[in-house]
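Late entry, evening session. Most of the bench is empty. Finally got around to the prediction I had been postponing all week. Sequence below, unchanged from the version circulated by S.P.
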Amino acid sequence: MTNSNDDGAPRPQAVVASDLDGAGTLNGRAGTSEFSIGGPDGRGGAEAGANPYELLSASLAACTAMTIRLQARRRKFPLSRVEVAVSYHHGADGGRDSFERSIRLEGNLGDEERAQLMQAANMCPVGRTLGLSADIRTNDNVSVGRAASYDDDLSELPIPNIDPD
């Protein structure tokens, strides 16, 4: 089944739109899900919602959890719950950026089953894509360090501040 519009043109996987007057809230849509996207509003305030780094981290966490769940079901492993936490970090001194991924597996799993499911995390398609330009470090607890700040990164962009008056 292809994902296309009525005219046969490919349908985008995600759309983000905003009116610049009024609140200027960014509204996102991916599939049938609709959500607000947060971050600086360009007027000194901030919009509520997940910022782009958080959405990127959520994509990696979701794909990792789905991949682990799929492997557990296919192999009939007694996984009762999977929890994946992800945070995005800038590389030190111009080095590669990284994602810190922590995974908690619950259930009556043996050591070999647990190891196979942790290995399955590295087969996640989103992780494979992100791994081309960033490192992904995985551990087996759900505690991640301080994430990169999207607001700080935006403030460092060389965009001139033009006063319309």
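Two things to note before I forget:
DSSP finds four helices and eight strands in the chain.
The mean pLDDT is 82.
Will write this up properly tomorrow.
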